[in-house]
Amino acid sequence: NAGVTQTPKFRVLKTGQSMTLLCAQDMNHEYMYWYRQDPGMGLRLIHYSVGEGTTAKGEVPDGYNVSRLKKQNFLLGLESAAPSQTSVYFCASSYSTSQRGYTFGSGTRLTVV
Amino acid sequence: RKEVEQDPGPFNVPEGATVAFNCTYSNSASQSFFWYRQDCRKEPKLLMSVYSSGNEDGRFTAQLNRASQYISLLIRDSKLSDSATYLCVVIDSNYQLIWGAGTKLIIKP
């Protein structure tokens, strides 16, 4: 089925460990996004990309890095995980800034202990 | 003050009732507005756009009040399957998406 696939779905990290979250879309979307969702707060944009080879900072980029080497993939890296990065991470993609084409992945639940 | 505010709820509503909730936004230059639905431990999914003249999609009605800077969502004849968290999204003048924290709705039999 076409859509946005995130891996892994769950992960527990120790403080200081690193990891990469993978987002893959097969809809040929130009735009891709990484969000985090925390209790009592709206989704907050971490980084986004408007096309292959481009990335930009969102609202809460500190502690994260991203790469978009291929159009269909958007990777989110945590170089040195901290407990404050415990969250649910959602990837999304769209063919334009229009909300009608906005598709989310099913999320990654990350716990940093 | 948060840019987009929602009553977190939960709203506990009997099946078949009508329920409405609002979302207020602080930036008067905001351009576009949407309602999303998010089920527990799932990703958000677009429910409907909100147009200036108001719009309806089946049992759901969305309204925009620019003067008072809020959008509303009305659900008629509520079903058990309507239980979810409803997120409002505002696109500001810089084309940035601002998300509300959501209103939790629980429909009881």
Question: Uncertain regions of chain B: pLDDT < 50 for 5+ in a row?
Answer: none
Largest sheet of chain A: 7 strands, mixed
Helix content of chain B: under 10%
Mean pLDDT of chain B: 93
Main sheet summary of chain B: 6 strands, mixed
- The helix-and-strand class of chain B reads mainly beta
Most extensive contact? A-B, 15 and 22 residues
Q: Would you give an account of this structure?
A:
The complex is a heterodimer of chains A (113) and B (109). Chain A is an all-beta fold and 113 residues long. Chain A has no helices and 11 strands. In chain A, the strands form 2 sheets. In chain A, strands 2, 4, 5, 6, 9, 10 and 11 form a 7-stranded mixed sheet that branches. Chain A has a 4-stranded antiparallel sheet with strand order 1-3-8-7, with no helix packed on it. The model of chain A has no long low-confidence stretch (mean pLDDT 93). Chain B is mainly beta and 109 residues long. Helices cover 0% and strands 55% of the residues of chain B. Chain B has no helices and 11 strands. In chain B, the strands form 2 sheets. In chain B, strands 2, 4, 5, 9, 10 and 11 form a 6-stranded mixed sheet that branches. Chain B has a 5-stranded antiparallel sheet with strand order 1-3-8-7-6, with no helix packed on it. The N and C termini of chain B lie far apart (36 Å). The relative contact order of chain B is 0.35. The mean pLDDT of chain B is 93.
Brief overview, please?
Chain A has 113 residues and is mainly beta. Chain A has no helices and eleven strands. By secondary structure, chain B is mainly β.
What topology emerges from the helices and strands here?
The complex is a heterodimer of chains A (113) and B (109).
Chain A: E1 4-7, E2 10-13, E3 19-25, E4 31-37, E5 44-49, E6 56-57, E7 64-67, E8 73-78, E9 87-94, E10 103-104, E11 108-112
Chain B: E1 4-6, E2 11-14, E3 19-25, E4 32-38, E5 44-50, E6 55-57, E7 60-65, E8 70-75, E9 84-91, E10 97-99, E11 103-108
Parallel strand pairs in B: 2-11
Antiparallel strand pairs in B: 1-3, 3-8, 4-5, 4-9, 6-7, 7-8, 9-10, 9-11
